[in-house]
Design goal:
Blueprint: H1 4-10, E1 25-26, E2 33-34, E3 42-46, E4 51-52, E5 60-61, H2 63-97, H3 102-122, E6 126-130, H4 132-138, H5 146-163
Parallel strand pairs: 3-6
Antiparallel strand pairs: 1-2, 4-5
Helix pairs in contact: 2-3, 2-5
């Protein structure tokens, strides 16, 4: 289930609607809201790995390590965009060198140039998490309890701020 109003309200891309980055859909699995001609670039951090002494009375979440890893992961995602741009440029050069007439190549070239423009100017990524349920259990919190909701909120805030640095 997607809450489209929340997606639009919280999507960084939708701050740039006038630049052509209005969210119009999601990738096929609905993990990442996308604008037209955008790419699905996803990377997940496994939260369970940040639980120290899981399932013990001293279990705790290592926010500092998670924060540092999220910064590195976001930087890696940005590097992936550079690799994608290089690949798009190779595709454009290949199409330009094809023997077909300009009329035949125009439509495809136009599309790839627009994709490249969005890739360069948008630099969209999807840095997320996995194993939230396991993490909550390993910390000793009952699913959907007030404490588990607070912990989840803190995890996502940490991810958000680390990603924006």
């Amino acid at each position: 289930m997607l809450f489209w109003d929340n997606i639009i309200e919280n999507s960084p891309a939708d701050c740039y609607v006038e630049e052509g980055f209005q969210t119009i859909s999601t990738n096929p699995c609905s993990e990442l809201p996308l604008s037209a001609l955008d790419s699905c670039r996803l990377l997940l951090l496994n939260l369970f790995g940040y639980v120290k002494e899981p399932f013990a009375s001293k279990a705790c979440f290592d926010y500092q390590e998670f924060f540092e890893d999220a910064k590195i992961a976001q930087r890696m995602m940005d590097d992936i965009i550079d690799l994608e741009i290089e690949a798009i440029e190779r595709i454009i050069k290949k199409i330009e060198s094809d023997p077909e007439s300009e009329n035949v190549k125009d439509r495809e070239l136009n599309m790839w140039r627009r994709i490249r423009h969005n890739c360069v100017s948008g630099r969209r990524t999807g840095l997320g998490i996995t194993a939230l349920g396991d993490t909550i259990a390993a910390l000793g919190f009952k699913y959907a309890s007030e404490r588990s909701v607070q912990e989840t909120d803190q995890i996502f805030k940490t991810l958000k701020f680390a990603s924006y640095i």
